[in-house]
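FAQ: What does a ligand-bound record look like?

Like this one, built around magnesium ion:
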Amino acid sequence: MKKIFGVAASSGIAIGKAWVFAQDAPEAPCYAIEAAAVDGERRRFEAAAEAVGLKLRARLAASEQEGNGEEADILKMRLLMVEDVDLKERVLSGLQKELKNVECVLCAVAGEMAERLLAVEDAYLRERAADISDVAAELTNALLGTGGSPLEKLDEEVIVVARDMLPSDALAMDKRMVKALATDSGSRTSHTAILMRSFEIPAVLGLSNATALIRDGDVLIVNGDSGRVIVNPDAAELEGHRRAIDENERVKAEDRALSSLAARTADGERIALCANIELPEDAGKALSHGAEGVGLFRTEFLFMSAGGAADEEMQVNAYRALVRGMGAKPVRIRTCDMGGDKMLPALSLKEEKNPLLGWRAIRVSLAMPELFKVQLRAILRAAAGGNAEIMFPLVSGVEELDAALATLSEARAECRQKGQAVPDDVKVGVMIEVPSAALIADILAEKVDFFSIGTNDLIQYALAVDRGNEKVNYLARPTHPAILRLIKMTVDAAHRAGKKAAMCGELAGVPLYTPLLLGLGLDELSMAPAAIPRVKRVVRACKSADCRALAARALKCGSGQEVAALLDIFTAQAGVGGSS
Ligand code: PEP
Ligand code: MG
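The answer part, i.e. the structure of the complex:
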């Protein structure tokens, strides 16, 4: 028996068999298929070719804009290869003849083509062999991203053990088969952690050496509350954790009973508790946990699940389904926050040295106004039949907000030109997640209907702590006086302008901080659906006057540690049972 410790990233306990995700294996999977599956594999190839084509076109446009002729020539060549009828025909006939999956057939076809090129005299043509291999690799990646990942094909319940897990991997995995996740790297506010909480699958991340210590088939206990993983546990550990699982089930049943009660403090102050969701089908989950609306819909996962840029109709359908699913409750749709740790091949996000400080979120949207308008038109059209709101991520200055608002006006005018009914009064807000935005919150507040504070990024940027890096995770203190001041500044600026201040960062869903956030004056807290009952329990046990006094004292503290100590004392004295 071995015990390893990491970051408690998604609550719950699971006992099961380890399945180690072999991320070093780059080869295409190869397996036999039935004749009836050929057509499906053909469609997968066509979709992958389209996605890669889109990506290459976007990269080509960027190279031409930058005047990089050499790169543009290579990209044109690759585009020709991706769209080459000969390649497509060879793959299709290979599928029929070999009855193998398309990645396998593509690998063989590309290998043959490259070999033939390598045998010719002409040096230029010989060099094209490398292009064929690169194109085949891009197509294979696109295929794996749209249906080829082994995480999608798990045939028994397992605990996934991985070195690292990208949000796209988490999205691809078969959730019914994954009992828990344990990874070497990652932290609580990484997007993979956020997804695992949304799926309600226990996770411990940042274990450093899980993949070195754990073998396929080992029995594991993953405790997503304590951040502990036990490898091949003894009988006593198994027994203790089975009892804890039963106790968790009992608490969940109690939580469900809370869902119909109002989020009101003991002295009658209301706060809205909303849900953060990543997929439109999660509306039911949000409602069953008692959400009063969707405070954050992270639309980028919609694009990632679609394997490329989702077209307007697809987006309209998704947003409408969500808005209808939530009834009359507000649904705050955040425009695409791609980049950072969320990559989308179709958008051609190049690898960057500092992706979190790079081309991300609103910056990408503003650089691709046509794609941005597709999303804005889709949201506006969905808002015609329900209560949808728009929120812009990672705004760092007023110019970006002005540009986004101007693009929104254009999108609205385009809808009207096409005779589509779109409302005038869709609420528009900005996320406050860059310190510069908090510092000019008074200026931004004049231009929007609401703020939503994204503490995951706000903490990352204010304290210079990569939110996905477990080595510096200890510095990401929400109680740091700088963070409290930035939150207070944002809330006050909103209120002075008569606007609402919400919080949708992970901090909003941690019961330990609920009294402090109430005291800082937030009007809404938005969190993973499963966190709502626990936060509501704390809200109902608190008095707003005590929370305000707590916040006033916290704002005078000189260090995060002092604030943390204050919170512990408050929790113990008020008996509100907040836990982190
Ligand atoms: C945040 O930064 O706090 C936030 C809610 O956005 P995301 O986690 O998607 O970056
Ligand atoms: Mg963010």
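Follow-up question: can I read anything off the structure? Yes, for example: The longest strand covers residues 13-20.
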